Amino acid sequence: MKLLRFGPIGQEKPGIQTADGKNLDCSSFGEDWNESFFENEGLHRLRLWLRENQSKLSEIPKNARLGSPIARPSKIICIGLNYRMHAEEAGMPVPEVPIIFMKATSSLCGPYDPIFIPKNSTQTDWEVELAVIIGKRAKYVSIENAMDYVAGYATHNDVSERDFQLRHGGQWVKGKSADHFAPLGPYMVTKDEISNPHKLRLWLKLNGKIVQDSNTSDFIFDIPTIIAHLSQYMTLLPGDVISTGTPAGVGMGLKPNPRYLEHGDVVELGIDGLGNSRQVAMNDPEA
Q: What is the pTM of this model?
């Protein structure tokens, strides 16, 4: 299944995308795609409900805004430097264990919402990433059983402000958490539809030019290793988002001159089987 959410910011409703590409309104299911939904076997219950009700569902207007496919998760956890070439372009050693940092959940937005360039920003950057959505509570999980805790996958742009991240002191979270710094979607694809998440092409274009083009086969740490590692240090809750790292080609690493987002730049990104998203960079209207 492909789960999506639609409607104005803060008023999103649940929906699905069918195999033939139609977006259907699932409001009558009575639940949002949130922690409670996943925790209470929502995917199984939704499948059964759709067998009886899909033919009765109305199509979502084509001009409807898409929000994040997951309602506000308890955590957005990110893995740094998980592609060897990205570590090299960043001038940092290849990590021996997964590097963990957080994004504020308030940074979450829809796949076609604008990227807000924050006040005083000089180095807002892009990062296409495979996001993993947790399907059930995970604590002290083994690598062997880790994939049992996955609900699905989504395309994520881990937007980053490098000056805030690297030169403002403290942790990377400062450069990762501005409003609209986590466009997610267009939908969450359930894991049964992705035969091998470790062999997916992911790419990103800036103003129509490919700048990132890689494959999850280049992971340093695979998904089971990441989930098992995280679950030793924190409890992962249903609906939590784990962003698995970005490949080479970010603005900070471009040679000979780094390139950062400016007002009006267009970012497009996609991952095999998970759909494409598009954001236009704009100065934060509240700045």
A: 0.97
